[in-house]
Design a protein that fits this description.
Distance between the termini: 75 Å
Shape: globular
Number of strands: 7
Largest sheet: 5 strands, parallel
CATH superfamily: SGNH hydrolase
Order of helices and strands: HEHHEHEHHHHHEHHEHEEH
Radius of gyration: 21 Å
CATH architecture: 3-Layer(aba) Sandwich
CATH topology: Rossmann fold
CATH class: Alpha Beta
Amino acid sequence: MKRRILSILLFVLVFIGLDRGIGWLLNNGLNRYFGLNQHSEVLLIGHSHLMLAVDKSNFERGIGLSVSKYCREGVNVADRYEMVKQYLSSPYSDSLQVVLYGVDQFMFTGAGLSKNSYKLFYPFIDEENMNEYIKESADFSDYWVHKLICTSRYSDALINSAIRGYRYDWRNYKVGYLDVEVLKEQIRKGQQRHIHFEQDLIDYFEKTLELITRKGIKVILVNTPIAAPLNEYEPEQYQKIISYFREKAASSPLIYYWDFNPQFSTQYELFFDPIHLNSGGQKVINAEITKKFNKEIEQ
């Protein structure tokens, strides 16, 4: 009996040691991938649009500043508010000068986004603001399983991101091209998302702007290209949200609005699908963002 108890205790200790060790390695890789472990002058916050539009390494070389690229696939405006809080509360934020925040016409549309996006932040459950965010969103058992078992916090996608962090790899691997005729048919059938203005998401966005600018940090609202048919099928709603972004930029000398749609939304060879750039598109838009940054922000 005593030997069995000792065996169980040894197994538990080995499990805890392995779990903590693997968890530390994965967490360190994620921090490298997102740039959460470095003093940066520039921070990118967004979802997959901005993530696929910017190659961190090339952007850093182009502007001559350190960049943290904290972009997550599927995050909504509320998630991004927590992401900004996470970075600003870290000891690495003391050098931050500029935030590039990805915007688009669907950012205040809750439909089509995951209601479980808080699970993306399980690897950071030991950090105060993310712990509170997850605790409020998850059920009791789900929260405590991930709180106690480090390796349970990582999906295949997160493990891949951690590996890419160790490889210093921020490239866009999307290959292929948008089928414009299929997109037009989807719009005709009402199979694409619509533009809405949900007040809770607007409130989170405005809280995010206030959180950043009150520290004297510049915010660039970056509207990376979306295929033209999506920009054109609800013209009144589209113009309403574009006007909103312009008004925000006009309201403060710390807020800018950059819209790359007028120049690039009809260059369909740059798109993998209606809302995401392919690898060739990333090279083009990355170069444009770099050029505009050096012209307008560095001055």
